[in-house]
Amino acid sequence: MTYKDVVRELNANADEKYKDFIAKLVPTIEKGTIIGVRMGDLRRLARKIRKEETLDIFNEAKFYYREEKLLYALCIFKMSESFGAAMNALDEFLPYINSWEVTDLIAGEIIIDEAHIEKAFQKALSYVHSSDEYTIRLGLVIMNKKFNDKAHIDKIIDAIKNITLNTYYVNMAAAWLLCELYFTDKAKVDEFLSSEAISMDIKKMTQQKIRESLKK
Predict the structure, then answer these.
(1) What's the rounded Cα separation, in Å, for the pair 194 and 172?
(2) pTM of this structure
């Protein structure tokens, strides 16, 4: 299999109606960069690539299409030779990430063994300290999925305090994380929400998400 074969298979699974749906769901990306491949088909192709190839197959990728990015996100951690190699590959991939869909998939796919927990957390912290919208979001969502605990809550709150980029996808990721942390340590999150250190947008979004969660 070559990378051209990968692209051909992506195009063979294109669904125009699904393309229209994704264009509305992820409005930050150009419709022309959406092929229209459903996640189930992407996962099947990822399994095939993982079985037959190495991660080097992506060396030819330009990551122009949404589906190329999602496919790579499904392969990075399962195909890298080590944790360090996976994180290096992720760092090199950051400039191509331009949607919440990719950041959130990566955060769900990341594999962290016991020996690398703190290194992974420090990497997520470095992402939150970035000036790039989707790099910040990636760090926040990794924290939400992997470090939502009392051992990390103080450093997470400090990181959120220092976010200066005010965009919807960053603010929503921060609010989602704080909402989850609220059920880990209510007192600390309440104290942060009552302080002047939190942005008004993140505060309002967090309070709304907490109210919604309490209604469930």
Answers:
(1) 18
(2) 0.95
